[in-house]
Amino acid sequence: MKKQLLFFIAFLWFGTGFSQTTISYIQDSKEAFTLESIKNADFKKYEKPINNGLNNGVYWFRISNLSSKKNTIQIPNYRIYKAKLYQGNKTVNPIEKERFLTFQTESNATIYIKVTATREALIPIEVQKTSVFLKKEKGSFLFIGFYYGFAFVIILINLFYYINFKEVTFLYYALFLMMISLGFLISDGIFLLYEVSQKIINSIEVFNHFLVVVFSMLFASSYLQLDNYYPKSKHFVLVLCGFVLLFGCTFLITDNHVYYVIMELFVFTTLIYYWTVALILFKKNLFTKVFVVAYFFILVLGISFYVTKLLGIPVLITINQLKFGGFFEMVLLSFAVIYRMKTLQVENTKMREEIVLYSKEIKSLSEELKKTSESPVSILMEANLSAREQKILHLISEGKTNKEIAEQLNISVNTVKYHVKNIYDKLNIKSRREAQNIAISL
């Protein structure tokens, strides 16, 4: 009985081992192989996705020991769009309206696939029973729908806050998130699903990455208030934006993948720059700390997903892992933007109340001085307030809010906030006693 049991276990073990699908590959850099000659080639065992960076060109794959007749072979990389599958003496055409290049076979005979990588040589091969593949695709679409639904809600919330509070940071973040989501749509193969041509996809991808840089600049500058700390930082980033657009357009014109790689390096140089600036300002306030943490995850995952495969660096993550980082970043940064707005509102309200108080005291002093024959000295001249600042100071003394001032002067709320801060600094007001010593003329 023992021997029979051991024999049965051994049969199952070796039977499973022998029936396991085998995948092997060979690079055909000179494109010398034909379907007949490739059968005698010295293939290497395929253990993980080929990741040879710029070493692109033609790769042959051999798939044998198929356990089922009905199989689905997919290459889940939207940049691989040229491949031919041979089984026996027949050519199997790819299935239409799939997210990635997909083939279905009706035999368990040995398969040969000729793949042409015109971009980076990242070639994942997935072989599954057709029934298993269909179930997996349903799960993938469920997760895809959940992610984009969640992103859409976050975008709407930020647009709602922008409309209600006139705070452009919400608008910039909504646009930034829209561009990131568009990039994910491309990587998910959604455009291929709707049979958009590869040339159009390349154009969308280039301008999408350019707009990611633009809106990341606007969002980070507004959120971190970089104009108060590094007012010239925008000039540096504008140069980077120019390089992104230059190399992106050059790639579209020449179809030389090297220019795309250079463009992508400039894209992530911009993102790394803003994260580094936030790290320098880490101790300034809480919402800067939140920015550093939230941005770190999406930045590291983005580099691992987009950049490493271009250079052939074996640090690969999946699009779903990148989306999980996106979930975390969306939730954290959305709350951080709201917290930042409330904090600034409290600070501005306090500053406005103080300036209103000081303005009333100044007005009272001015009235007292007018009763005497002494010639008063204008505090506005001593403080060197601009005409705009004098007008805003006058409106503040009337008890108007920043929003009301902005509407009356036809300027943005942020501009009002900027002038209010300058008034506070220029008057050098710290106590009532100091204010009483100021001789002014209004």
UniProtKB/TrEMBL annotation:
User: Which of UniProt's keywords are assigned here?
Assistant: Coiled coil, DNA-binding, Membrane, Signal, Transcription, Transcription regulation, Transmembrane, Transmembrane helix
- On whether Transcription regulation is a keyword of this UniProt record, the answer is yes
Domain HTH luxR-type, residue spans: 378-442
> Where is the chain membrane-spanning?
141-163, 170-194, 206-224, 236-253, 259-282, 294-317, 323-341
What's a single GO BP term from this record? regulation of DNA-templated transcription
Entries under Gene3D superfamilies matching the protein? Winged helix-like DNA-binding domain superfamily/Winged helix DNA-binding domain
Xref: InterPro entries = 7TMR_DISM_rcpt_extracell_dom1, 7TMR_DISM_rcpt_extracell_dom2, Sig_transdc_resp-reg_C-effctor, Tscrpt_reg_LuxR_C, WH-like_DNA-bd_sf
Q: Which residues form a coiled coil?
A: 341-375
**A single MF term (Gene Ontology):** DNA binding
Pfam families linked = 7TMR-DISM_7TM, 7TMR-DISMED2, GerE
Signal peptide bounds: 1-19
Protein name listed in UniProt: Winged helix-turn-helix transcriptional regulator
List the source organism: Polaribacter cellanae
The upper taxonomy is: Bacteria, Pseudomonadati, Bacteroidota, Flavobacteriia, Flavobacteriales
